[in-house]
């Protein structure tokens, strides 16, 4: 009991220190960076202490860590709805909304295919071979395979279209966020038509939407201000429960995943340079988001932070919302790109297939794009994306089950890359849509 109280007191003292630094520096990024190291230090000490009290201490820390994640999920839905609606409210017409959405989705699919190639090349260069894992027990169930057995692109596309917005507002479907975005786009187009056909009623709706946006943004800023404390608690949990000894036989696969993720971040930086952006400034801006995504392993919970970071970097509000929202459920660079591609690279040589041949890549990369949409359709992250890709290629799926045990280890890096991929889609879409789109958003914000 004394140990538990001591660690709770230690966390409170560290939180107070971060709070004082925040008051003095007014820099969220600096506070998050400090909180990461404090949380890691607390977690490592708990890890080596390894007593019965450790679990109890982490449960108390989880009030802060998991509570923060829940609050982010709580404000994500109203933020997505009102931000997109408010941005459309400030447009003159609805001509650019469809083009904007298609451009963002196209960027996501291109990025996830690039990520797939990076994962394939990395695993092939390292020399990972599926035969080395032939004696290991797969934990894949028949139910897992059945979820992807009947997957088709038309079914996946249909599943994205909402049938009951109130059901999606509860998050009951795996694609609820996308459903809400589609509904909001529809509502926004209808709003523009009301403003044109019935100006008096349109002005009333417009004023109400603007007031609600101010209210929701205040709530979001309150929650985001809690980021250092939530991250510190999450880091303490990660470092106290991580058991490297459990995964020694799979270290090669884990190393390949992390190396491929690092290479994809480099690709993102190169794309920023090619689009005329400063990658150093970009990564400084999104660092708190990537940190949170890494420790929380939740793309959905990262949505408010991702939107805020994109806007801070200069991405228009509507594009930032659509990119972060769609990116939480589809086009995921880590889960749907790198992870299944590494498995493909391991299996292909055992079947006499050259994974880097142009003919095979022409089959694999579209399958990865399909799998990135399939993640949204069936849920389950990297596991189900891998099942979709391997099934599409007629490859054996048993390897997927072997790596389920170490998914939490690689999922931290995968999630950070997923979130960065969604933000990169917003940045690239802004660049592709041109200066005119950015100027319109800027003038709308000034008004």
TrEMBL record:
The chain crosses the membrane at residues 6-21, 28-48, 68-88, 100-126, 175-194, 215-239, 251-274, 360-378, 384-406. It is a multi-pass membrane protein. InterPro entries: Na-dicarboxylate_symporter (IPR001991), Na:dicarbo_symporter_sf (IPR036458). Keywords: Membrane, Transmembrane, Transmembrane helix, Transport. It holds the Pfam family SDF. It is found in: Membrane. Belongs to the dicarboxylate/amino acid:cation symporter (DAACS) (TC 2.A.23) family. PANTHER family: L-CYSTINE TRANSPORTER TCYP, PROTON/GLUTAMATE-ASPARTATE SYMPORTER. This is L-cystine transporter. It comes from Citrobacter enshiensis. The lineage of its organism: Bacteria, Pseudomonadati, Pseudomonadota, Gammaproteobacteria, Enterobacterales.
């Amino acid at each position: 009991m004394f140990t538990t109280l001591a660690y709770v007191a230690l966390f409170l003292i560290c939180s107070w220190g971060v709070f004082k630094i925040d008051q003095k520096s007014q820099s969220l990024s600096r506070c998050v960076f400090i909180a990461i190291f404090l949380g890691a230090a607390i977690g490592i000490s708990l890890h080596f202490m390894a007593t019965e009290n450790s679990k109890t201490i982490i449960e108390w820390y989880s009030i802060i860590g998991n509570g923060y994640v829940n609050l982010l999920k709580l404000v994500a839905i109203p933020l997505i709805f009102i931000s997109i609606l408010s941005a459309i409210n400030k447009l003159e017409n609805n001509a650019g909304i469809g083009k904007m959405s298609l451009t963002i989705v196209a960027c996501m699919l291109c990025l996830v295919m690039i990520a797939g190639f990076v994962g394939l090349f990395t695993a092939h260069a390292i020399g990972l071979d599926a035969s080395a894992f032939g004696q290991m027990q797969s934990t894949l169930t028949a139910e897992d395979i059945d979820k992807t057995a009947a997957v088709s692109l038309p079914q996946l596309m249909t599943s994205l279209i909402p049938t009951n917005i109130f059901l999606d507002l509860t998050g009951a479907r795996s694609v609820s966020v996308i459903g809400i975005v589609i509904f909001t786009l529809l509502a926004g187009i209808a709003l523009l038509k009301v403003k044109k056909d019935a100006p008096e009623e349109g002005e009333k709706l417009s004023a109400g939407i603007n007031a609600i946006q101010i209210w929701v943004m205040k709530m979001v800023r309150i929650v985001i201000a809690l980021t250092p404390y939530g991250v510190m608690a999450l880091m303490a949990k990660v470092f106290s429960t991580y058991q490297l000894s459990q995964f020694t036989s799979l270290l090669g696969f884990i190393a390949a995943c992390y190396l491929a993720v690092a290479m994809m971040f480099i690709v993102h930086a190169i794309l920023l340079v090619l689009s005329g952006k400063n990658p150093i400034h970009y990564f400084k801006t999104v660092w708190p988001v990537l940190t949170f995504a890494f420790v929380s392993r939740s793309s959905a919970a990262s949505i408010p932070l991702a939107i805020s970071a994109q806007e801070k970097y200069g991405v228009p509000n509507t594009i930032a919302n659509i990119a972060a929202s769609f990116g939480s459920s589809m086009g995921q660079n880590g889960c749907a790109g790198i992870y299944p591609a590494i498995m493909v690279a391991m299996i292909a040589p055992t079947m006499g297939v050259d994974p880097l041949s142009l003919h095979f890549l022409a089959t694999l990369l579209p399958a990865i794009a399909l799998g990135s949409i399939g993640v949204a359709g069936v849920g389950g992250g990297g596991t189900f994306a891998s099942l979709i890709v391997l099934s599409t290629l007629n490859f054996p799926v048993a390897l997927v089950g072997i790596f389920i045990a170490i998914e939490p280890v690689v999922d931290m890096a995968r999630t950070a890359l997923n979130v960065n991929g969604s933000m990169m889609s917003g940045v690239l879409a802004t660049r592709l849509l041109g200066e005119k789109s950015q100027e319109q958003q800027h003038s709308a914000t000034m008004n």
